[in-house]
Amino acid sequence: MSAAPLPIALTCGDPAGIGAEIALKARAVLGAEVPFFWIGDPAHLPEGAAFSVIETPEAAADVPDGDLPVLPHAFPRPALPGQPDPANAQGVIDVIARAVGLVQDGRAAAICTLPINKKVLKDGAGFGFPGHTEYLAHLGRVERVVMMLACPELRVVPATIHIALGDVVRVLTPDLLEATIRITDAGLRRDFGIAAPRIAVAGLNPHAGEGGAMGREEMDWIAPLIARLQEEGFDLRGPMPPDTMFHPRARAGYDVAVCMYHDQALIPIKTVDFDGGVNVTLGLSFIRTSPDHGTAYDIAGRGIASEGSLVAALRMAQQMAAARGV
After folding, report:
1. Could you count the other beta carbons within 10 Å of the beta carbon of residue 301?
2. Closest CA to 14 of 87, 70, 71, 69
3. pLDDT tens-place string over residues 47-85
4. What separation in angstroms does the CA of 254 have from each of 110, 229, 235, 236, 325?
5. 219, 163 Cβ separation under 8 angstroms
6. In this predicted model, which residue has the larger pLDDT, 131 or 171?
7. Contact 1, 29 (CB under 8 A)
8. What span, in angstroms and rounded, lies between the C-alpha atoms of 22 and 306?
9. 268 with 276: CB under 8 angstroms?
10. CA 63 – CA 66 distance, rounded (Å)
11. What is the arithmetic mean of pLDDT over 236-262?
12. What is the value of pTM for the model shown?
């Protein structure tokens, strides 16, 4: 008889955002299909929420399907929807670290993170990281990770992320692009069970430079880098014109698209599946997924936030754990 799968640790995110309400909705949708537990302050859950407090992650399996399993983590202040409180910032940070510790100790299969507000964490607790991903890399003791956005129809990886468009040419280097491709290839093999990932590499310039008429980066170093990695055995294609690589027929030819900057990657996936996209961090020793949206303070507490992306993120975390044999 096989052992029950380990549950996923779901961090609470910003208590003033939509995290708690969509966690409850996700539990209602998933039931026992995807075992997970929420780490946070039970007092931050909406009034009348169906939940059961657990003392250990293992106890999540014994909670009735209709209840959200809650591993309690006390916060100093109440949660007011739409009104972030810097006094709760350290609690948010500590919950993330606690979840990572549980995965590293083999007591959870993966972590799924609900949205945070980086400015609130910086103002309230001196948070010294640009975002969630960099903090997770720090906790995992790795220097470089890759952000992938995924849905059933498309996976995309931006080589540069939250920087001004004018800075992309300076930041995007051969070393960065090569590392991004290598981490992406390894992640698809380990976490998605794809034995030989097919990776499409977008061009930087319109029409992938059009032979140098619209930019020389493709000719000068992107195409030579791709050729060198192909010689090593990577299944790469490109540089591909960004405006023709995301229609359905083109998408059928690759498993992931490595893009050069934020919007080049995120516009197509949010157009294809706005509610179901999942943020995945590749390159960590543990599995991390997240819904692809923010705290949504403007609708927090109104009960109208969609749980679709969180449900997809939890399911993907479970699939990745199965691929790793966790």
Report:
1. 18
2. 87
3. 999 999 999 999 999 999 889 999 999 999 999 999 999
4. 26, 16, 9, 9, 25
5. no
6. 171
7. no
8. 7
9. no
10. 8
11. 96
12. 0.91
Give the other-Cβ count within 10 Å of 136's Cβ: 24
- List the end-to-end C-alpha distance of the chain, in Å, as a whole number: 16
Task: Please say whether the beta carbons of 113 and 119 come within 8 A.
Answer: no
As a whole number, mean pLDDT of residues 178-184 equals: 98
The residues, ordered by sequence, that sit 6+ positions from 310 with a Cβ below 8 Å of its Cβ are 22, 23, 25, 26, 112, 114, 291
Q: Where are the domains of the chain?
A: 1-144+293-326, 153-272
Amino acid of residue 235: D
Return the structure tokens found at 298. Answer: 């403007």
- Provide mean pLDDT across the span 292-310: 92
**Residue 260 corresponds to which amino acid?**
M
Q: How far apart are CA 131 and CA 239, in angstroms?
A: 29
Work out whether strand 146-151 and strand 154-158 pair parallel, antiparallel, or are unpaired: antiparallel
Q: Report residue 5's pLDDT band, with 50, 70 and 90 as the boundaries.
A: confident
Q: Comparing 1-144+293-326 with 153-272, is the CATH topology the same?
A: yes
Measure the CA–CA gap between 120 and 233, rounded to whole angstroms: 45
**Which token pair is 277?**
């996209």
CATH of 153-272, one of 3.40.720.10, 3.40.50.170, 3.30.300.30, 3.40.718.10: 3.40.718.10
If one looks up domain 1-144+293-326 in CATH, what number appears? 3.40.718.10
